[in-house]
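At this stage, I needed to go through a protein sequence along with its fold in token form, as given directly below:
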Amino acid sequence: MGLAGNAAIVGAAQYKPEKYQTAPQMFHLEQVADLAHKALLDAGLHKDDLDGLCINGPQFHEASVFVPAMAAEYLGIEVNFAEVVDLGGCTAVAQIWRAAAAIEMGLCQAVLCVIPARMAPLAPNEDPAWMVQAMRYGGHSTAFGAPEAEFDLPYGHMGQNTGYAMIAQRYAQQYGYDKSAMAKIAVDQRFNAQYHKDAIFRGKELTIEQVLASKLVADPLHVLEIVMPVAGGAAVIVASKELAAKAKKRPAFVTGFGERLSFKSPTYAKEMTVTPVAEAAKRAFAMAGLTPQDIHATQIYDCYTITVLLSLEDAGFVPKGEGQRFIKEHNLTFKGDFPMNTHGGQLSFGQAASAGGFSQVIEAFDQISNSADERQLKGCDNVFVTGTGGVMSEQGALILQGG
């Protein structure tokens, strides 16, 4: 059961990551239209080819309900498939497989998957501090009746940093914690970012010593092991095999996927060091008929360095507890023997809110379509991609293969 591999990513577009105060403000509908136009140009397709839409919901500025209908109307398209996906950093990966499944079911032939993530202009009566207030507790709910509001927030477990630090502490207790190995993840990815023209940290090289000397935010996580939020946004076009044959670039076929939601707060995790991606990756590999040894590049969601470590282990690239040794023994740059996050990852490319996960998807497509410029790998046919939402709460995996 699963995908037959008859749907592919054929075009993509993403805004250059920028600091919020310097990025241009655009209504989210404008961003959707602009990103769709750019992605269609990249694919060599026309707006009239689109008959499916996957979009994010809660962060959409102009409305919180009927978002697909409003966006489709603004784009001037009629769709046979529409989906709102709300999985945080897993949203991009989740949109892709849903689009591929809809196409293989015969519902549609081309789906726009899009997340706008630049600031939208404020309404005359809108509080300019709304975003600061919304981010104060990270992904936690302060609403009356929410378990987190009663059992997490009053005890200092708030925001993402504390949750991921708690997971890292648990890992250290069970398997040990090599700070230099963890720092190397960020350093290798920073090297890759020097070869991506849009990376926010391009031109700023990094050493292990600098990572370890940076501010300790939540023990054991340093500030240079944590993503810097940026303004951005991205879109991809997923199309049928027939349309993919007409596209400009070599398509990246979606041959496997998996998704797993295990909890909202790690307070309720059965075991913090075993993450949802373990089941998601197992399903993705089985569906594609591949193993981790068949993969030519990995694009691992990297909100924190600990996310990368656990994802590599749980996806089957290295046994549990041996990830730090693996990281130190291998070159994770695009020039190395285990190319990972060849665009710099979100740690060095930039994380545009929920759209940040698209950077991994788009880098996979760039590598498969031979569009990765100086960082292009030779013979890149099979790429493994992950997405992570919340505090290791919801994770997804994709296998993309060149056609």
